[in-house]
Predict the structure.
Amino acid sequence: MAKTQIPRKPRQRKKRIEKLQNKYRLIIFNDESFAEIYSFRLTKINLFLLFGFVSIFMVTLVYLLIAYTPLKEYIIPDYPKLEEREKIIQNTIKVDSLEHQLQLYDQKLQILHMVINGDEPPQYMNEIPDSVDDFSNITFSRSQEDSLMRAEIQEFEALNVNFKPGAVINPKYVSIYFHTPVRGTVSNTYSPEQKHYAIDVVAPKNSVIHAVLPGIIVFNSWTVETGYTCIIQHSNNFISVYKHNSKLLKESGSKVEAGDGIAIIGNTGELTTGPHLHFELWHEGKPVNPQDYIVF
């Protein structure tokens, strides 16, 4: 009869498993008396598992020591110290602020360049007339009492420091004295949703327009859409714009003080429906609501 032979591979695999399961005893003796101090049994499988757990524990411990203690400053090459990291953060903040300021200056220079060339910046190009209603037929008449009251108010509020209640104003600008450009009726308010970045003030014929702050006139000429227009550059990155005037009283480059007469109210330009002042106030290259700064 032919004998059945067990394949070699299963037999070798079985022998390997048995070797792993073989038990060994580790005994610790006293070197002088040869007395047994400690002993324990091991298998190759237990030895591998113990080595694996110890390795994982050591790796985790080293990672925690490096990640959450100052040791990383001495172990990791070129790792910045605490003082250096603080300086890096401060420099990053300064660089970000400088980039923001450069963007504001670039935007302001672009707006001034367009204004000097006789163009209007795209941000406040008006596609609709300034005033919704037609105020061309308004007539103004003053009584003696009204004239006296107006004179008292104008004398008391030569420099208007009243801000609109509830307006969000930077505390460092609260002490700035804004002079009212002209006394009259506000016919159209500031409305960014309607692309109207200004207020329209209706006033009597031949009323004088005043500068709201000290500054230098950077544009003082005629445009098709807005007629006789005056633009003044002030300190603290403020720009005031006066449109639709009938006459300009100053020249480009002139230095003016708050309250100086710069123009006469009028009805010039295509984007107008009656005599009024179209007044814009810009800060750091962005339009702001004039009524948040000035009481008309």
Remarks:
- Residues 60 and 191 are 61 Å apart (CA to CA).
- Residues 18-75 form one domain.
